[in-house]
């Protein structure tokens, strides 16, 4: 079985009141940071900006260096074919360009992929309701 390399990037947006921007994917009722797979040939930060806009409708300034990195292995289904993936995960901190909205509708580009956008406190996030690859970073937050 061939191994598929899949870089992934995520935005960590934490507002002055401590709330963290999270999304809930359609495939599982958990919270995760906005982001995802980076396209072949796409710059990491450009990919995170694209994912952030697609999933939340927000734009942000992102740190040049990641604040968290991880390496995970998983199985994925692509075109009906199961494949083994290696993913290097990078999380970049960011600040919103513009104000936070009181109500965050899911952008049209993310319908079917994202079911909810939320601003959560660190206390709202647990190992059980959070994407497992993001949890080690989120767990350290105070």
Throw out a few tags for this protein.
mainly beta, two-stranded antiparallel ribbon, 142 residues, Nucleoside Triphosphate Pyrophosphohydrolase
In brief, what are we looking at here?
The protein is mainly beta.
Describe it.
This protein has 142 residues and is mostly beta strands. It has a single domain, classed as Alpha-Beta Complex (Nucleoside Triphosphate Pyrophosphohydrolase). It is 13% helix and 39% strand. It contains 2 helices and 8 strands. The strands form 2 sheets. Strands 1, 2, 4, 5, 6 and 7 form a 6-stranded mixed sheet that branches. Strands 3-8 form a two-stranded antiparallel sheet.
Average residue pLDDT: 90
Order of helices and strands: EEEEHEEEEH
Content-based structural category: mainly beta
**What summary fits the major beta sheet?**
6 strands, mixed
Number of helices: 2
- The tally of beta strands, per DSSP, is 8
Low-confidence stretches: none
CATH superfamily: Nucleoside Triphosphate Pyrophosphohydrolase
Helix content: 10-25%
- What Rg, in angstroms, do the CA atoms define? 15 Å
Overall number of structural domains: 1
Overall 3D geometry? globular
Distance between the termini: 42 Å
The assigned CATH architecture is: Alpha-Beta Complex
| CATH fold group | Nucleoside Triphosphate Pyrophosphohydrolase
Kindly provide the name of the CATH class. Alpha Beta
Instruction: Tell me what portion of residues adopts beta-strand conformation.
Output: 35-45%
